[in-house]
Write a structure and sequence with these properties.
By secondary structure, the chain is mainly alpha-helical. It is built from nine helices and four strands.
């Protein structure tokens, strides 16, 4: 069906989801993009729709998944993530802002320039603005990786250790394994020569 002038959809934009007898309406981009780890035409359609509606929060919610945009360079993805971050901050949506900041910063791992201080600043922002953030262990893990990649293993271990405090819950086992692996690599490479 055609919902707007230039965008055709054969899936609903939102879906009611019931979990533990609570029904929520969730955007389909989450299911199509994030859960499938592939945006395809759907993410492009969502971007067209968000821009056509000229709704900055909807735009930010799409920009947040910039790494799924087909044929966008890393620099273009970073620009979208920066835009989303600013929109989320302006609208006091701190959890989404931190998500974007994290995904923007980890792109440094694909470059020859890593700025650990930027990761430290993000950790400070996350712990003060969204102390219960589900992905907090990811934030600490990524900060630790930034320090590890800059040959500062002691600081890296501090961040990995702090990240483990957030990865204790049984539903955070993937986060815990990632941190444990990074701790093992750090100890092996720097401390046990």
């Amino acid at each position: 069906t055609t919902l707007f002038r230039s965008v055709n959809y054969d899936w609903p934009l939102v879906k009611d989801v019931t979990i533990d007898n609570v029904t929520e309406t969730r955007g389909m981009i989450y299911y199509i993009g994030f859960c499938n780890d592939f945006g395809g035409k759907d993410i492009s359609d969502a971007l067209l729709l968000a821009n056509e509606l000229n709704n900055e929060i909807l735009q930010a919610l799409v920009y947040k998944y910039a790494y799924f945009f087909p044929e966008k360079s890393i620099n273009e993805q970073i620009i979208y993530l920066e835009k989303a971050y600013k929109i989320f901050v302006k609208n006091e949506m701190a959890d989404n802002a931190i998500y974007c900041k994290n995904n923007q910063l980890i792109r440094q791992f694909d470059s020859d320039k890593i700025y650990p201080k930027e990761f430290t600043d993000m950790v400070g922002e996350a712990t003060s603005d969204v102390p219960g953030l589900v992905g907090m262990s990811h934030i600490f893990n990524n900060a630790g990786m930034a320090y590890l990649m800059m040959a500062q293993p002691d600081l890296a271990m501090e961040y990995f250790d702090k990240g483990m405090e957030y990865a204790k819950s049984p539903d955070r086992f993937v986060q815990k394994i990632a941190i444990l692996c990074n701790q093992m690599i750090t100890k092996s490479y720097y401390h046990e020569r």
